[in-house]
Write a structure and sequence with these properties.
Blueprint (H helix, E strand, L loop, with lengths): L1 H10 L3 H17 L9 H10 L3 H12 L6 H4 L8 H15 L9 H16 L1 H25 L4 H9 L3 H9 L3 H59 L1 H13 L47
Helix pairs in contact: 4-7, 6-7, 8-11, 9-10
Length: 297
């Protein structure tokens, strides 16, 4: 019996064993995931962020909220030499991490809006150009400080002699390091803060000057308006003034005015106030001068 049962196996697999092996291989093919190159990048990104821990999402929200407000590169956690494609890719990555629908942080929506504003600024050609100009100024300041620090450094001098491109090659390699980018970031904060302060100060002065000119213009308009109203009122009351003058002339008792002003009559005695009025020529007569000689006994 044992020999008869082992005979088919020794002879080779039968039809039933081949079908079972083929079914098993098909099952393995279905269960195995496709290779990474066959997956869509969006699916890979979504699969990655589906496994991100909640604490990582909260930490990223806090980083965005505390990022330097004047530098959109820092908000997106990018190097300053990042390209437009890098900006889009980084925004997509961070927005999936801090999206309010996936992150439970109370300020997730605020962080999401900050990322959107940063991407908008860096995709705007004019704003990006202005930011890059300021960053280049900061970069030059870092280079000057580096040259000053390493002016008498023997190690840098020897490395420059051994390098194919000399000192320029040494500096180019140093600018690729994290140390350089960290110093660049700190210097950029200082330059951006000074630039923003000057901008706000200039804006304030322009606003004050504009307000002063508006007040002056309003004062001129009010003065012109008052003058016009006075002239209008003067023309309106012309007839009243003429009639009043005519009535005054009529009430004069027929006396004709010669146009000469008569001086008032002099009074030599006033019974009510009991004093004698001096003639007109004596009313303002100065007192007699005192003698400068010695007093007489």
């Amino acid at each position: 019996m044992g020999e008869e049962e082992s005979a088919p196996d020794a002879a080779g697999p039968g039809p039933s064993s081949e079908a079972a092996a083929q079914a098993k291989a098909t099952k393995k093919e279905r269960a195995a995931p496709p290779p990474p190159e066959e997956l869509d990048p969006e699916d890979l990104l979504n699969a990655f962020f589906s496994d991100v821990k909640e604490v990582d999402r909260d930490n990223e929200v806090n980083r965005i909220l505390w990022a330097f407000k004047l530098n959109p590169f820092e908000k997106l956690n990018l190097r300053f030499d990042a390209t437009v494609d890098d900006v889009k890719r980084q925004f997509r990555k961070l927005s999936l991490m801090v999206h309010p629908d996936k992150c439970k942080h109370p300020q997730a929506s605020t962080a999401f809006d900050i990322l959107g504003e940063a991407q908008k600024d860096l995709l705007n050609d004019e704003k990006r150009e202005n930011i890059v100009k300021v960053l280049e100024i900061a970069k030059e300041e870092v280079r000057k400080e580096r040259r000053k620090e390493t002016k008498h450094d023997n190690l840098v001098r020897v490395a420059s002699l051994l390098h194919e491109e000399g000192r320029d090659g040494i500096e180019a390699e140093w600018e690729k390091t994290e140390e350089f980018h960290e110093r660049w970031k700190m210097k950029a904060r200082d330059v951006l803060a000074r630039s923003e302060w000057r901008k706000r100060k200039l804006t304030k002065r322009i606003k004050e000057e504009t307000l002063r000119l508006e007040e002056k213009d309003q004062e001129v308009k009010e003065r012109h308006k008052a003058k016009k109203e006075h002239e209008k009122q003067w023309e309106t009351t012309r007839d009243t003034r003429v009639n009043t003058w005519h009535d005054y002339l009529k009430g004069g008792g027929g006396k004709k005015s010669t146009g000469m002003v008569k001086p008032p009559k002099l009074k030599t005695n006033d019974d009510d106030k009991l004093y004698v009025q001096r003639p007109v020529g004596e009313q303002h007569r100065p007192p007699p001068a005192k003698s400068a000689g010695p007093k007489k006994d």
